[in-house]
Amino acid sequence: MIASTLSETPCKITYMELSKRIAEIRAETGLNQSEFGRALGVKSQAVSQWESGKTKSIKPVILEKIHRLYGYNPWWVSNGRLPKKIPRGRVVGVADSATGYDDEGRSGITIRSISVRASHDSALGFEVQHTEDDDQGVAYYRKDWLEKKGWREEALSIRPVSGSSMEPALYDGDQVLINEDLRTPRHGMVFAVASDGHLEIKRLQKRGSEWWITADNPAYSRFDQRLESLEHIIGQAVDKNSSVI
Asked: Cα angle vertex 66, ends 61, 71, to 5°?
């Protein structure tokens, strides 16, 4: 995934068997099963089993290697989630979270996903939830890169972008890295904010003495709204992983 610093449609899925996706990758790269297996560090029999359907899944470290070598989105290879190909960036991708390392031995960190839900038990009317469920969209970052940025692992969370309200800064399917240590509003910066029991990724604008939650896409400007409370700011968006070049 390409990474850079800096709602409303579900992720698109292609309903194709894993076996057919692997065969398609081989066809497009022009490799036979032996050559493909050799590049990935597996035997040709393993490739044959993927393509025959005998093996229904691929280890995360192999998915990451396919991405690094040929640019295929690990999520597309594993479950058909579009886009099919994505540029390579600083995200470790689907490195083996059980070991915490990618295939080059670099330590990786699983970034949990974040959401909010309405809650009558909270004085704010909502509560923040975190999960490491892959279906909710977790991400894996290199530990050394995060440490260089000075960001605490415990304060980081990931949120997938849905819809077109933040285009051209953010596109549907992008993943935004949220730093929950950074909750002080800044004019013109993108934040995760709780609004009407939902988590929104929007740009904050200072209008007079008030803070407003705004969209970048002019077609959504009518939905701009005043920030109800500074306590509704969950964290600042500090990085994104995008399929759009």
From this structure: 130
